[in-house]
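re the bet — no i am not wrong, look at it urself. input seq straight from the record:
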Amino acid sequence: MKFYAAGLSLFLSLHVNASCAFLAPADKTSRYTSPSTTTNTDNVSTRLSLSSEPNGDSRSGGLSFGSGASLLNDAFANLSQSDQYDAVLTGLCAKILDGEQKLSDDDAAAAASAYEGGETDPAVVDPEASERAERTARLAAMTPTQRAFAVLSDPLSLLEEMNGRRVRASPRSLSALIDAAATTESPSAMSSALSLSATNGGIKNFGALQSFVTAVPTNPRTRVVCPDGVRRTKEERLAVLQPVPMDDRASEVASALAVVVVLSLCLIVRSFGSLFGLEDLQGPADLVIGSALTVGVVDNFYDAIKGATSLVASTQKDKIPDAVKNANVGLPDKEGMPLGLGQGKSTGTVTRGLTRLLSVDTERECQCEAAAFFVAYALGLPCFAFRPNALEGAVLIFESAGTDEYSKAVLDPLLSDVGILKVLIWIMAPVAMESSRHAQLIASDPREGTGLLKRLREKAGTVSAEAANAIEDMLGDEVDVSGDETDSLLRWAYAEADALLRDNRNVVDELTERLAGGAATVGDCVAVLEDW
């Protein structure tokens, strides 16, 4: 059966018109089908149609070819109803994944300009090319969300019909549908695909952990159950929460680059200065190199140097002059050293900067990506960016509060205190994962959380009064996003992300291993979370 299904998928990926006839039955128009993107199939001799076998076969009600007899027709007729649907659904998604129906914003603008300019005159090009150009131009005139639903209209319509007929889709076809939805880069389209998949019975864990999130209480006297099981007020919980790990990566990288450049120039002058008449600069170059080495040794090994000095002084006490003994001469404590020497502060910034510049840790990056993906899926956020950022989070929040029919129909509103907290937990998930396993943050950036809150505050005046009030209730009336209320919200979200990841460490580790393979798609990651 798998051989026949695979063969049919290849056939359908080359003959999309045959599947379109099935996807648009005359007696029912799906809510996902756009009249402007329907394909004309009158000239197709072989088409898919619904049939009911009179002999009471268990495959009655499946798909069959209305005309023409061939080995392919017989093989397809011998498939069960669910296999027939799976084959068609996989084939439709394969066309999208192959890029035949995908249209980026730049391509859309170019296509619209070319079509309006008459560059696709049917008299010049063949009819099929003209039809494709017209369809491309129609897609170009749509909004990105409308375009995403137009591209996915056939697979979504087919899955909707499968749900009506109570035909279960296989994990393979659902994985292909999710991958196809991911190519549209539309949260609304992804939400529709996941919703239909959940109705079909294949998706069960999407948004399953939303109830485990501890919301920020609006009343300061209200006690909430924290992840450790203790009931606390907002202030009581904030008092025991760890601060969000922060760093100054810009100064670290700048310091590392400056040291590398200066020492490199000094080494060049020291080694090749005589060839260019720079002998006079070799002395200062030696001084700079020696000073850098001395600072590095003293800053990182001061305790060892002081200990060794004390040991030598105690063993050679008889040889030390009385004047030195009476003067009580010795190395000072490292807290009293100038410029913070002896505590690793002077060279620590340079070392961390060099680590950022030179470190390539694929496993660390996969851990952060797995954490972000898991949290988004567990909290029901249809935005599976492996590296979430403030812009994507803000777009998701405001799109969920949009007025267009697509967003209102399929997206849960996120422009609320609970919705904003969920998005913030998603953005802080990579930080929580990396800080739990590494001393320095490299693959994740805690500044993205502050960036999200800043964007929400800036856009508060462009949304409805109700949405603006929700933002104000969540962020307070602060003008500066670096204030106490923002810090409290970031620490709360960071703690929630850390709790989710620790409680589901095995699943996140398995997802990390799948990503580390280098070929995992969004559908493959969903397969891990759904245990397909």
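see?? DSSP finds 24 helices and four strands in the chain. told u. also The longest helix spans residues 282-315. so pay up
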